[in-house]
Specification:
- There is one protein chain.
- By secondary structure, the chain is mostly helical.
- It has one domain.
- The chain is built from 4 helices and 2 strands; from the N terminus they run αββααα.
- It has helices at residues 3-17, 41-60, 72-86, 89-108, and strands spanning 21-26, 29-34.
- It has a two-stranded antiparallel sheet with strand order 1-2.
- Helix 2 (41-60) packs antiparallel against helix 3.
- The longest helix has 20 residues, at 41-60.
- The radius of gyration is 22 Å and the shape is flat.
Length: 109
């Protein structure tokens, strides 16, 4: 197999196999965005709640050690940091705004 064939095959594999991470670039450099499928906002919020619960339980059982998890406190901090990024703040602002509009309309009726 020559280099052109190898490159073609690698490009095809990339197209068919690499879907979870989406490569992006901004003023700070290159990075990847991750997306995952949820049925709706409720499922999304339940996922975040469950991640938070796991972190809380992990912090409550600090004395438990596992060789596969040598730095549990650091791992919990990383999950919490990612949860902050997953919080749908703009959507929550929209919901607040829609609620205000509905209250205004109800007052007019």
């Amino acid at each position: 197999m020559d280099q052109k064939d190898i490159m073609w095959e690698l490009r095809e594999l990339k197209k068919t196999s690499l879907h979870l991470l989406n490569r992006k670039e901004d003023g700070r450099g290159k990075y990847y965005e991750v997306s995952f499928r949820v049925a709706d906002y409720l499922e999304y919020m339940m996922l975040m709640r469950n991640l938070l619960k796991v972190c809380i339980i992990s912090l409550q059982t600090e004395g438990v050690t596992d060789p596969l998890i040598p730095q549990p406190r650091h791992n919990v901090q990383e999950v919490l940091r990612h949860l902050l990024q997953l919080m749908p703040l703009e959507e929550m602002r929209l919901i607040d705004y829609v609620e205000e509009l509905l209250e205004e309309r109800e007052g007019e009726d």
